[in-house]
Amino acid sequence: MKKPEVLAVVPARGNSKSIPRKNIRPLGGVPLIAYSIAAGLQSQAVTRTIVSTDDEEIAAVARQYGAKTPFMRPEEFSRDETLDFPVFKHALEWLAEHEDYHPDVLIQLRPTSPFRPPDLLDQAVQLLLDHPQADSVRGVVPSGQNPYKMWSVNPDGSMSPILTVAGVKEAFNAPRQQLPDTYWQTGHVDAIRPRAILEKNSMSGDVILPLFIDPAYTVDIDTLLDWQRAETSIMEDRLKIVAPEQGHRPFPATPRLLILDFDGVMTDDRVWVDQDGHEMVAASRADGMGLERLRQLTGMQVLVMSKETNPVVAARCAKLKLDVLQSVGDKASVLKNLFLERGLKPEDVLYVGNDLNDLPCFPLVGFAAAPADAFPAVRQSADLVLQSPGGFGAVRELCELLIERLSS
After folding, report:
1. How confident is the model over 160-172, as a mean pLDDT?
2. How many Å separate Cα 187 from the centre of its chain?
3. Which of 121, 150, 344, 404 has the most CB atoms lying inside 10 A of its own CB?
4. Per-residue confidence (pLDDT) for residue 257, from 0 to 100
5. C-alpha dihedral (75, 80, 85, 91), degrees to nearest 10
6. 329 has pLDDT over 80
7. Which family does it belong to (predicted)?
8. How far apart are CA 161 and CA 152, in angstroms?
9. What is the largest CA-CA distance in the chain?
10. Averaging pLDDT over each range in 88-102, 235-249, 365-379, which range is the top one?
C-alpha cells in the first residue's frame, strides 16, 4: 500500500503584535518556529514540511532548520484579522497549481504551541486514517475551567449561563461530577483532510475526532508571561518533547584560538564564600595539564572570557599562563571585537560555554562545545557535548580531542 502523502504546514506571520518577531525569537536557544518545524521533520508519518510566511527573515530561518518555503504568503492573507482558513486554502491551491501536489492529509502546526510529545503527529495521522468518515483530528486537553460554570452579561446587566445540561437544573450550581467532561483545543496539532478545506470551506469539516494530549504539554505563547513560563519549562527539563536538531558543525581543520568560559567550564559552577565575603572555587588539575599539553603540542592560543570580576579568575589563569578577559557582560560583542583585533575568522575559533550568556557566541564561532552538565539549551545548541562535567575534566577532554585531531 502506498504511504499517504502528509503535508505539515507551519503558519508564521511576520508582523506579530503581542510579542514582536515572536516566531523567530529564541526560546531555549533556538527560534520558536524551529520546534514546530522539528515536529514535522521528525514525524514518521509526515512526508513534507513547509512554512507559510510573508516574511523573508522568517523564511530564511525556516530553511535553516530544514523546512521548505515554496512560496511567500500574499499580504492579503497576512493581516491581523486573517483566519487560518484562507492561509491553508492558499497553500493547498498554490501547491496544486504550481507543483501538481495533492496531499492526502494536511497537518497544522502552530508555532505558539511548541512543546509536543515525540509521537503526537504520528498518532494524529493514524487516528484520521483509521476513521474514513472523519474530516479532521484536533489535539485537546481537559478544560482548565468548566464552561458550564461560565456566564455572559446581558444588555440589561443581568447574567445568563453560557451552557445548559439536559436533565440538570442550574448546571452552574451542580457539582462537577454531574457535568459532562469538556476539553480545550490546543495548537499542538490539527490533522485535516484537504477536502474539508477545498470542498467544505472549513478548517475542520463536519466530523472532528479528539486526540487527547497530556495537559503538562499545554503551552500557548501569546504574551511575555507565557514566554517566561515556556522558558521555565525548558529550564526544568521534565517534558520529553520534540526538540530542534542543530546542524552540528564539524571540527575546524586548523583552529587558532580556544575560548573558555570560567565558571561552569573550568570550575563546577559552585563557589565557597567565607564570613568576610571572600570567594573560593574548585578547579581540576587535569584541566590544567590538558591546557599545558595543548599549548606545547599544538601551539594553540587559549583565552578565558568571564563575566566575573573575582580575583580568583585572574589568579587561576595566571598560573596556567592563559590570557583572560573579565567583567564581560556582552560576550558576543567582545567576541566580535576580538575577531577584528586579531584578524580571526569564525573557523579559527572554538568556544566552550555552559550557560545562557554563552549562547550568543555559539553562532559566531566555527565550533561550540559544552560540558556534560551545561544548561539544557546550551547542550542543545552545542556542536559537541563533552562527556565530562565542568570542573571535572571537561576542558581536559576537549584538549585531548584537539591534540589528537591537530597532530594527525
Report:
1. 89
2. 16
3. 121
4. 96
5. 30
6. yes
7. Belongs to the KdsC family. Belongs to the CMP-NeuNAc synthase family.
8. 6
9. 86
10. 88-102
User: Is residue 92 helix, strand or coil?
Assistant: helix
Distances (CA, A) of 248 to 67, 184, 255, 380, 395: 17, 38, 17, 10, 20
- Cα(53)–Cα(55) distance, rounded to whole angstroms? 5
Domains plus CATH for the chain? Answer: 6-143+182-236 (3.90.550.10), 145-177 (no CATH), 257-407 (3.40.50.1000)
Read off φ and ψ for residue 290, nearest 5 degrees.
Answer: -60, -40
Q: Per residue in 15-46, pLDDT tens?
A: 877 888 899 888 877 889 999 999 999 999 99
What number of other Cβ atoms are within 10 A of residue 186's Cβ? Answer: 22
The pLDDT, as a whole number, for residue 64 is 79
Cα angle vertex 10, ends 9, 12, to 5°?
Answer: 140
- For residue 408, the model assigns a pLDDT of 67
- Convert 118-132 to b/e letters by CB count within 10 Å (16 or more is b): eebbbbbbbebbeee
**Predicted local distance difference test score (pLDDT) of residue 246:** 60
Contact 142, 183 (CB under 8 A): yes
Contact 400, 297 (CB under 8 A): no
CA distance 279 to 366: 34
Predicted local distance difference test score (pLDDT) of residue 277: 78
Q: Kindly give the residue spans of alpha helices, DSSP state H, lying in 118-187.
A: 120-129
Could you give the C-alpha distances from 151 to 128, 148, 160, 178, 193, in angstroms and in order?
A: 34, 8, 6, 18, 35
Distance CA 116, CA 108 (A): 13
